[in-house]
Amino acid sequence: MTAIKESSTLNVNKKANKATCPISYVMSKLGGHWKPIILFHLMSGPKRYSELKRLIPAITEKMLIQHLKQMQEDVLVIRKSENVVPPFVTYSLSADGEQLRPMLDEMVKWATARDFKMEQV
Hints:
Structural class: mainly alpha
Shape: globular
């Protein structure tokens, strides 16, 4: 992936908007297709990487790894690694991630009020 130049107009505009608009700030943390979906699945408890991959079959391994790392850096997700063979790594919501639960619950309510039916996987 090509790095965006720090002084590019797009980057400067994004930073200015993020500093003045709370929605832009939230979208910088949760933006994209996969992050809210990953957080939704972590709401039910800690998950291993393989469990998340199984729950979200359409996501590529690269995207799952990338988003988990970004959410770890944003302190939304905690990565716990146990030093055993084979490695045992779990992901769970951090305190900041838990604070997103009401918003994610509202998204679920909004979807189910519009005849969305969750399929059993």
